[in-house]
Design goal:
- With about 300 residues, the chain is α/β, with parallel strands linked by helices.
- The chain has 2 domains: about 120 residues, Rossmann fold, CATH 3.40.50.2300; about 150 residues, Orthogonal Bundle (Arc Repressor Mutant, subunit A), CATH 1.10.10.60.
- It contains 14 helices and 7 strands.
- A 5-stranded parallel sheet has the order 2-1-3-4-5, with helices on both faces. It has a two-stranded antiparallel ribbon with strand order 6-7.
- The chain starts with a strand and ends in a 5-residue tail after the last strand.
Length: about 300
């Protein structure tokens, strides 16, 4: 369930956000709560996980930059969209919003039609999903390789190979493999695949994109090749990823892959606690969106 909060003073703006979410997500898969002050926005974020905040930085009559920065610092995984009638000479204020952690800016009565606003909100949520993937990676990696996955995600995916990854990292691929092996992480080739799959799953959130288009954009040999690799690494089909909660499942599988590699390399007893549920879900079939999926491996 997507949980969104809007802090907007104008009724028309609130209705447009509600219409954009309703048009982008199936009924029953998102909730939108309206608040009247930053304190209520903070309380909403504390009560349960919050995915999206749409706010007017001028809602109190004057530009409010500090509350935005405070909220972004406290709820780092929440997507932030500034939506307002930005006055002339506001470039410095927009820059302040960007530095505070705002992911997108939408101007009232300019680029806030239902389709346009819906695309912005979905784009912010998709970027948030990739940010979660990076956060999972950073939580399981030492400093020596922590920046590797973000660089892979930023690279043109159809051009990523072990050699090009080495050039990005200014190191020979053997050196990268050595760092990964010592850290108990998956091999370089598998990380390249995971970076491509995370990007692909983000693109699949756009209902207008076909599987063939995703495969083409990200350099898979074919749509079937993409489907097979997605099934092998995540146990999901493209249709499963598109369902509510599909991207969250992909991220859980990515984290499980890192945990299995880490505990397998260390021989830790923790491995039993990690691999046992994984073997149950991944080897005997997993249930996603009410559908039982076949077993898979990474």
């Amino acid at each position: 369930m997507l949980r969104a909060v809007a802090f907007l003073s104008e009724a028309t703006a609130r209705q447009r956000v509600a219409d954009a979410l309703a048009g982008s997500y199936p009924a029953g898969t998102s909730s939108l709560t309206f608040v009247s002050c930053w304190r209520e926005a903070h309380l909403a974020g504390l009560s349960s996980p919050l995915e999206l905040l749409v706010f007017d930085p001028y809602a109190d009559g004057l530009f409010q930059g500090e509350p935005v920065a405070t909220f972004a610092e406290q709820f780092g995984s929440c997507g932030l969209v500034a939506y307002a009638r930005f006055p002339r000479g506001c470039a410095g204020q927009v820059l302040e919003l960007s530095r505070s952690g705002v992911h997108a800016v939408v101007t009232r009565d300019v680029d806030d039609g239902p389709a346009e606003l819906g695309r912005v909100l979905k784009s912010v949520l998709e970027c948030r999903a990739l940010a979660q993937g990076r956060a999972i990676w950073e939580a399981h990696t030492p400093a020596s390789v922590r920046g590797l996955l973000p660089r892979l995600l930023r690279a043109p995916q159809d051009a990523v190979t072990p050699d090009s990854a080495g050039r990005m990292w200014h190191a020979h691929p053997k050196t990268i493999r050595s760092h990964l092996r010592r850290a108990g992480l998956p091999p370089l080739g598998k990380l390249i695949v995971w970076s491509r799959l995370l990007q692909a799953c983000q693109l699949l959130q756009d209902a207008g994109r076909s599987v063939e288009n995703v495969a083409l954009v990200l350099g898979f040999a074919s749509a079937n090749g993409f489907r097979n690799q997605l099934l092998r690494y995540t146990g999901l089909r493209p249709s499963d990823v598109r369902r509510p909660g599909g991207m969250a499942t992909v991220l859980r599988r990515f984290e499980q892959a890192l945990e299995r590699a880490t505990c397998g390399a260390s021989g830790s007893a923790e491995c039993d606690r990690v691999s046992a549920p994984c073997a149950s879900a991944l080897g005997n079939g997993a249930i996603v969106g009410g559908t039982t999926l076949p077993g898979h491996g990474v």
